[in-house]
Please model this.
Amino acid sequence: MSRNRKLLAAGAAVLVLAAGAGGIAYAVGGDSEEQATGPGADRAKAAALDAVGGGTVTSVEREDGDGTGVYEVEVQREDGSQVEVAIGDHNQSLGTEADDDTGTESEDGGPGDDD
Model:
């Protein structure tokens, strides 16, 4: 095998390994917050807005298995505060919590509630 062919083969192998590592990194730690769409997501939005008394939906995500609901809906209230609403499989609210991304506040009596 000529030297050029060996270099070409080695370069191709490096590219394949790099692409594989990138794919694994994306699968493990990539964008897990993909927005849910469709009729189910629309019903979840309506249920979340009803549960918190209105506002603007900023995101709807399918639950990834580490929570209690089927959907996680983030709502920005009129006062600017953000809440996350867990919506169950029958479009019922399973609870809300302040969405401050620190995990320290809770509105439904869950962890972090100092009352």
